[in-house]
Amino acid sequence: MFIIVGLGNPDSKYAGTRHNIGFSAITALCDSHGISMDTRKHKAVCGKGIIQGQKVLLAMPQTYMNLSGESVRELVDFYKIDVETELIIIYDDVALNPGKLRLRAQGSAGGHNGIKNIIAHLGTQKFARIRIGVGEKPAGWDLADYVLGRFPEDERPIIREALERTVKACETIMTEDIQSAMNQFNGG
Questions:
Q1: 96 and 102 in contact (C-beta within 8 Å)?
Q2: Residues 84-113: pLDDT tens digits?
Q3: pLDDT at 16
Q4: pLDDT for residue 127 is more than 90
Q5: 60 burial class (0-12, 13-18, 19+ CB within 10 angstroms)?
Q6: At residue 98, what are phi and psi to the nearest 5 degrees?
Q7: Which percentage of the chain shows pLDDT scores above 90?
Q8: Catalytic residue positions?
């Protein structure tokens, strides 16, 4: 069984913001595979389904970004998954151009507080992650204001396409492995 977690903030005022691109990716997975997010447990909104013949649990933690690890730890413990091979975390990255994907099998938090909290709760940096570029904050802007802002109209098609590629990247991780997905989706 795979658990795919998209990071974001639960309040509706954050819907569609750069920081909530992980939630948007979960929505894209739901739409692509007919999965309903109809359960609230483990401090998350969850949906169960099948992707590429594999059982999957999709989750959007409701703890707010900086406490995402609380929910992820509960999910991992309850479902007894191997975090190195059966967990995928999807989140925003201001160091990548809008729409660019970067997949990794492990690594540091890179300054992302949600990932920092997940690493602290899991006690490991070894889990698959998909970072979706949201672009660098403009000079003089506060980082929080930038990531909690919405994408401008001209970037929305790029982001939609990135979410479609994120769905394909998740499918590849599930049917092949993270290395294959990295080889296919980390270019260009």
A1: yes
A2: 999 999 999 999 999 999 999 999 999 999
A3: 93
A4: yes
A5: buried
A6: -55, 130
A7: 98
A8: 19
Tokens 């999910």 correspond to 75
* Rounded Cα–Cα distance for residues 166 and 34 (Å): 16
Output the pTM of the full model. 0.97
DSSP per-residue string spanning the chain = -EEEEE----SGGGTTBGGGHHHHHHHHHHHHHT----EEETTEEEEEEEETTEEEEEEEESS-GGGHHHHHHHHHHHHT--HHHHEEEEEEETTS-TT-EEEESS---TT-HHHHHHHHHHT-S-SEEEEEE--PPPTT--HHHHHTSBPPGGGHHHHHHHHHHHHHHHHHHHHS-HHHHHHHHS--
For the cut 60, the answer to whether the pLDDT of residue 174 exceeds it is yes
The residues that bridge with 6 in the sheet, in sequence order, are 90
Query: Averaged over 117-124, what is the pLDDT?
Result: 98
Q: Which residues pair with 88 in a beta bridge?
A: 4, 128
